[in-house]
Amino acid sequence: MKISRRDTLKGLAAATAVGGLAACGRSTSPPAQTSRNDFYDVVVVGGGFAGVTAARDLSFRGRRTLLLEARPRLGGRTFTSEFAGHRVDLGGTWIGVEQPFVWAERMRYGIGLAESAAFAQPQQGIYLAGGKRHQVTPEKYAELFASGARKFLAPAQEAFPRPFDPFFSKAYERFDHLSSAQALEALKLSQPERDIVSGFAAINGHSHLAEIGYLDQLKWCALGAYDPLRLFENCARYRLEGGTGSLLDAMSNDSRAEVRLSSPVTAIVRENDTYRVEIEEGGSVGTRAVLLAVPLNVLASLRFEPGISAEKMAASRERITGSGTKLYARLKGTQPVFSAQGPDKTPLTFLWSEYVDEDSQIAVGFGPDPKLLDVNDTEAVQKAVAAFVPGAEVLESTGYDWNVDPYSQGTWCMYRPMFFSKYLRELQRPEGGLYFAGSDIANGWRGFIDGAIESGMSAARQIHSALNS
Ligand SMILES: Cc1cc2nc3c(=O)[nH]c(=O)nc-3n(C[C@H](O)[C@H](O)[C@H](O)COP(=O)(O)OP(=O)(O)OC[C@H]3O[C@@H](n4cnc5c(N)ncnc54)[C@H](O)[C@@H]3O)c2cc1C
């Protein structure tokens, strides 16, 4: 979406044109020092999928809405880019049939599906176990993966009888103290099962097993229809045609909210019953309500006057676990379409064929820790790829370090042990006119695009009804 002065004016005009401002209930007067043009019903901070969804939905309801985004682009932890002649996603990529919110948006805007080569035309399964490389049929590979993962994730149904309603039962409490390392340790698994499951669990949490709560592994499985194979399919099979940017553009172009890019918010200050939102390099806007749709890891870097709850700040400082790597590597020549997996401490614990071209293949890979692999070091990438595909020649590779980006400070969300019990409800709780949204605090697919949309949608509904009352 190009945001120009014209677009800004269009946003203003549209907000007024729907006539919603008057129709939507009590209006609060801007404080004396804020001009009418700089006063909004709602300011949304953060233009990832959560913020874009919320801003769109609020604008549809006639709320005068401003979306402030720190980066010069929307999309947050999704970012469609070009690599080796393909539109690739450097952040969030795959969506699944069990993901109702993103699936519905895709249908609403008529965005087509593309399929990973490793799912569409699988030819080879590769895994590292007991220090050796093994090559099997895709069916055998799926069987091995499923047998270990089913044992690891067996209590998923008990912990989350309603996957989109995580607090429906208290049974989750039995598992929240465990790390993924402890849960795995307690199981009797064969060596291949253990090595495969450890890599799978490490990639789910995008970190080391001791850091990652076991409960979220169960949560993911519950969301994937209680079946590790279905879970994997939801995480790795379908891409949006044209990349996630095509859905994001469709949603933001449909929105009537005003958008300001390159506008990092530094502080939110309460002034009687309204708020002043301060933007880096000067300037501020006034509003009746603020939706914080920034990554959880970023929340603590904002200043709140008066302060928000100590638990929210503590959760932000403890951080979500996602801090690993993702890369694309172009491999020379033709070769079988493969899926490969290694144990948790391998530089890449997953690598598979994503695109197949005439004279090369693009593989996508994930690792648990940037210290184990610098994705921009072609030699290191070559070595990591060769562990799975001996003789493969890496022509070029690319990746993005989300950990050093101040506006993400990490990758996707899994929680640490006890994080769920201690923080989730509190992270979702509004404080006065401050509301919170984002994939990192969603009820369903927390850590996914689907969760971001769910959370943004719920926040918009909540804010709209609060402003009405
Ligand atoms: C490498 C990687 C791979 C992934 N793979 C998948 C996948 O295959 N499928 C899937 O569903 N999900 C995947 N995810 C997760 C998914 O991308 C995210 O969970 C989701 O996009 C988060 O959306 P969000 O709106 O909650 O947060 P974000 O997308 O992080 O949006 C938050 C926004 O807030 C902005 N912001 C931050 N600070 C400020 C500030 N001070 N002022 C103003 N704006 C600010 C940021 O710039 C950003 O735009 C992946 C993520 C990564 C990083």
Task: Give descriptors for this structure.
35% helix, 469 residues, binds flavin-adenine dinucleotide, eight-stranded mixed beta sheet, alpha/beta, FAD/NAD(P)-binding domain, seven-stranded mixed beta sheet
How would you describe this structure to a colleague?
The chain is an alpha/beta fold. It is built from 17 helices and 20 strands. It has a domain of 204 residues: FAD/NAD(P)-binding domain. Strand 1, helix 3 and strand 2 form a beta-alpha-beta unit. The N terminus is likely disordered.
Derived from helix and strand composition plus strand pairing, the structural class reads alpha/beta
CATH class of the domain at 5-75 and 244-320 and 413-468: Alpha Beta
Indicate the radius of gyration in whole angstroms.
23 Å
CATH topology of the domain at 5-75 and 244-320 and 413-468: FAD/NAD(P)-binding domain
Helix content: 25-40%
Number of strands: 20
CATH homology group of the domain at 5-75 and 244-320 and 413-468 = FAD/NAD(P)-binding domain
What is the count of DSSP helices, taking H or I runs of 4+ residues? Answer: 17
